[in-house]
Structure prediction request, 397 residues.
Amino acid sequence: MRCLHIPDNGKAEEELMRIGVDPYGIEAMRPKMSYLKVLLEGIECKVANILKQEMLSIGGDVAVSRGSVGCSVEKTDALILGTEKQIRALAGKIAFQPFGLKEMAGELDELLTNMARTRFRLTTPERTIEIADRTLIMGILNRTPDSFSDGGVYEDIETAVKRGIALEEEGADILDVGGESSRPGSDAVSAAEERERVIPLIEALKKHLTIPISIDTTKAEIARIAVESGAEIINDISAMQSDDRMPSTVARYGVPLVMMHMRGTPKTMQRGDLSYVSLRGEIIDFLRARIEAAEAAGIDRENIVVDPGIGFGKSPDDNLRLIKYLGEFKTLGRPVLVGVSRKAFIGVITGGEPLERRDGTIAAVVASVINGANIVRVHDAAVIKKAAALTDAIMRG
Prediction:
C-alpha cells in the first residue's frame, strides 16, 4: 500500500491502463485522479470489489482491473481515489469486515497520517536533531582508497580531519564517515581494516566538530566502537541485513539509524537483471519490513531514517524515477535520505567523470528536495547548502 505521486494527466492515464481499467472507466476516472491516490498491489478480486462498492457509496472510486468484477483474474491492483475524508470514511466502513479488510483499515489510517507528516525529531545520546522546515545536509567523508569519487584523497588522517572541519564550515548538518567503499563491484574489507580507517578519524574529528558524526558501516562491531568513540548516528546501507548483531547494537545505544534499500551487495548489485516488477512498491515494502524488524529489536521507530538507495541495484532510469516519485516514500512516515552525489546515472546524462558531475548533482538534489527529501548526502556541501536553501524557500515558504 502506498500513496501515488502522479504529476500529470498523461501519467494518470498510464497508471489506469497499467492496472487494466476498462477504457470507459478510464474516461470516467480521469477527473478523479486529482484526488488522493492510494495504490494496493495484488489484492484478491473479492476484496477489490468490496472496496469499490464501499468507496462509490461515499462519492469516491476504486480503479481495478476490468476482469476483477467477474473474478476472471486471480488478483488485481486497486487504486483508491478520493479525498482524505472519504478514504478515512472507507477505513471506518471496512474496519469490521472479513478478508483482511480490518487490517487494511488500520493501514489506510496510518498511511494518511504518515502522508500528512512534515516534522520529525531524531534523538542521539548528545542532542535532538530537528527535521522540519529545511533540508539537512549530510557531508560525505570517505577514508578509503577505492571510493568511486574521492578514493585515496583522505587516506592521511590530518587531511581527512581538515576536510571534515571544512564540511562543517560549508554548512553540513551531519558528517558521514565511511571506511569501506560501496561503489559497484567493490570488495568488502575486514573489520580490522575498517576500524583502523574510521575510529582514529572519528576520535580526532570529535575534538573539532559541533555537528553530529554518522558512521557509515554494515558491521555491528564497527558501529559499536564508532558510537563509543563519539559517533551519534549509524548509517547501514544493508538495512541491518549484513550483520545479525546490528539490531541489538543500535537498540543498546539508542542512536538514530539510517536504513537503505539495496539488492545484493556492492560487489554484485549492478550485475545481471536490474528490473523490478514494481520499483517503488518493492522498495517501500522492503523498507517497511525493515522498520518493523527494527522495532521488533527494540529500536525506536522515531529514530529511523529511510533511504531508497539511488544507484544501488538500479538502472539509470530507475534512479530518475525514484527521484521523480520520491514523495511516495512519505507513505512510510519516516524522514527520507537521498544520496545522489556525483553518481553514475548523472554521468549518463551529463557526461564526465565523478568530479565533473557537480552541476548534475545540484539538479538531482533540487529535484529530490522538491519531491520530498528531508536529508541529502553530498560531497560538495557549500554549493548544495545554497541550492537546498533556495529550494526550501520556494517549496516551504
Remarks:
- The chain has two domains: 2-116, 120-396.
- The first helix runs from residue 9 to 19.
- The mean pLDDT is 92.
